[in-house]
Amino acid sequence: MNDKHFALSKKNFIWIAAGIVLIILGFILMLGAPSTKDAYNPDIFSFRRIVLAPTVSFVGFALILVGILVNPGKKSTTESAE
Question: Which domain holds residue 49?
Answer without folding.
Answer: 8-53
